[in-house]
Design a protein that fits this description.
379 residues; alpha+beta; binds flavin mononucleotide
Length: 379
């Protein structure tokens, strides 16, 4: 019951601590015959990697992934392919500075997991937060790259849409822009503002939260497993499992409660062979726990980094009241690097659901639909 595993048919186990020799994951259930190279994985790890701008932690990790198992050279094609056996992925830790954490060895950071790990296990790895560190999320990103191979036709992209109280202007949305600024922000103007804003926050020794939106396009209608494996429920659980996430919304989310029935209904027209045409997408691409064929839209709220220079009141292991100011290298807005992590978690859930859907009703790996049912259903 130690819960380092998620997924059903596409099953991911992550391991490792922030300041241990390495972190990694074992991906079990990946179908055989899919091309998989280090580059396929590295490209996503490079997006999450720390130390790439002054707006993320200055810990310098190459996050170079090694594939230890689960692939075989296809000599005829000159590529590595998955074998259907567990894929073990390893990422070495190379830039640990455990001494930075000596001062907080027995003092709890308010807002972090220090107290709760102690309460549960009676001990904790204080070095970089051990397993509670978001260093672990690199392993999720690596697993997500494998998942993307299984649902290759699905386009999964994420964007930072709010920093602190400042929302982007959605009319400026440009996916290309998310590749150009250090915030994964789709609004160039907002990204410019975030630079000045986050510099100020950082210099004050403070931190700030963010909202991330993840969109999956070209998911066919029919994926999902009601009632206790609803696609939206499993997406929410996967996103909620990311460090510092305090809220998840699908589609209109909490705002749906303010709408009337007629405003919230996604009206339907006949459409084409892919399915009906929906005139809106308040549902975020999921109804009854099953994909509608519309883009799947999920948002999650990330709290501000708890390790900050601003002194906070706290206690130590003995209950002595004290103050804490966390030095060391920390992200002033953890929401930035959470973007590729959110994309990876959605990819893992979709790969898992694709395989489960295929197990029940058929379909091809990387394909879009099973043999049946076909829209429109009555001929
Ligand atoms: C990408 C990413 C980077 C993070 N970096 C830091 C950090 O530098 N310092 C910190 O205190 N927390 C950081 N966090 C958040 C902590 O890992 C998290 O708050 C902690 O594990 C407690 O868990 P909870 O916030 O989910 O309750 C980061 C989170 C993410 C997603």
């Amino acid at each position: 019951m130690s819960h380092n595993v998620f997924g059903h048919l596409f099953r991911v186990t992550t391991f490792g601590e922030s300041h241990g020799p390495a972190i990694g994951c074992v991906v079990d259930g990946c179908p055989p015959g899919l091309t998989l190279s280090i580059e396929d994985i590295q490209v996503f790890l490079d997006r999450r990697r720390p130390g790439q701008s002054r707006f993320t932690t200055q810990r310098q990790e190459a996050d170079a992934v090694k594939i230890l198992s689960g692939v075989l050279r296809d000599e005829a094609r000159g590529v590595d392919v998955t074998t259907g056996t567990p894929i073990a992925l390893l990422i070495e830790n190379t830039d640990q500075r455990s001494n930075d954490y000596e001062a907080i060895k027995s003092v709890y950071r308010p807002g972090h997991a220090d107290f709760t790990y102690d309460a549960k296990y009676g001990l904790r790895d204080h070095r970089g937060g051990g397993r509670s560190s978001a260093r672990e999320t690199a392993a999720r990103v690596a697993a997500g790259a494998v998942a993307r191979k299984i649902v290759a036709d699905v386009v999964i992209r994420g964007a930072l849409v709010q920093m602190g109280p400042h929302r982007i202007d959605r009319s400026h949305w440009d996916w290309e822009e998310t590749q150009r600024n250090p915030f994964f922000c789709p609004d160039a103007k907002a990204a410019g503002f975030f630079e000045t804003y986050l510099d100020k926050v950082r210099k004050e020794g403070s931190s700030v939260g963010a909202v991330i939106e993840i969109v999956a396009e070209r998911v066919p209608a029919g994926w999902g497993a009601p009632l206790y494996g609803k696609l939206d429920a499993e997406i929410a659980a996967a996103l909620m499992s990311i460090n510092a996430v305090k809220g998840v919304e699908i589609g209109d989310g909490f705002a749906a409660a303010e709408l009337s029935g007629e405003a919230n209904a996604d009206d339907m027209r006949r459409g084409n062979e892919a399915g009906p045409l929906f005139l809106s997408n308040h549902a975020g691409g999921i109804l009854g726990g099953i994909s509608t064929g519309q883009p799947i839209i999920a948002r999650f709220a990330v709290k501000p980094t708890s390790s900050i220079l601003q002194p906070r009141q706290t206690v130590d292991r003995n209950g002595t009241e004290t103050e804490i100011a966390t030095k060391g290298r920390h992200d002033p807005c953890v929401g930035i690097r959470a973007v590729p992590v959110g994309e990876a978690m959605l990819a893992c859930v979709l790969a898992d659901h694709f395989l489960r859907h295929r197990g029940q009703v058929g379909g091809q790996v990387g394909g879009q639909v099973g043999e049946r049912p076909r829209w429109p259903f009555a001929t």
